[in-house]
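Please predict the structure of the following assembly.
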Amino acid sequence: MTKRFGGIVLDISFRVLVPFTLVYGIYILTHGEFSPGGGFQAGALLAAGIVLSRLIQGRSAGFNISGEHAVIWAGVGTFIYALTGFLPLFFGGNFLDYSFLPFPAEELHELHAMGILLIEIGVTICVMMTIIDILDAVTERADIDD
Amino acid sequence: MRMIGTIVLVIITTLFCLNVDALPTIGDINSAPNQHITPTYIEHCQHDTGSPNIVTGVLADYRGFDTLGETSVMFVAGITTVLILRENRKKAEKGGAKK
């Protein structure tokens, strides 16, 4: 999986497929409040875009995230979630109490929607980077064994 | 020591199996969760969380702490995979150098 394979057909078709996958992933993330979906599903879709690009173009693909960076970003995603939980503590609320988030909003449920979006972004980054991370580790291992 | 463990395990399993009958059936409208929690979520979700999707409202707002745990579990799983596999790679490289 580390070497590039396939010819012109795969190259062109993945250039069409990957942008649609990514846009659909972002749609699932931002629209998760109104329709089925949310952070976990969006993360899986976004990771599928990167995995597709890596499957076809190999590890040196132009559109890629390396395993070392993926581990860091997975931590950043979890940190965004935890930070959204800790922020209300400094403004007089409980842990993960979105009513006390320090954002300008006219009504209370807007703040809750903002908090939900923030934690969904954190979950998305974490899930996406974890999938890429595991794929990277497994393929690297497979190369050593060969 | 192992015998004691096995006996305790068998006793606990038997107790759990005997109590299966006492559990409420799935979807029973008279069970405790369906009496209080579910109607409250359905009635107040949109007003409380501003989210028309009740699943998202419960998952991310009412039970946000639970989801934080899920995310952390996923992060730890990823780190563990990398640590185990990379560790083996280092050992393999050292073994190859000695030969």
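Residues 27 and 92 of chain A are 33 Å apart (CA to CA). The longest helix of chain A spans residues 108-145.
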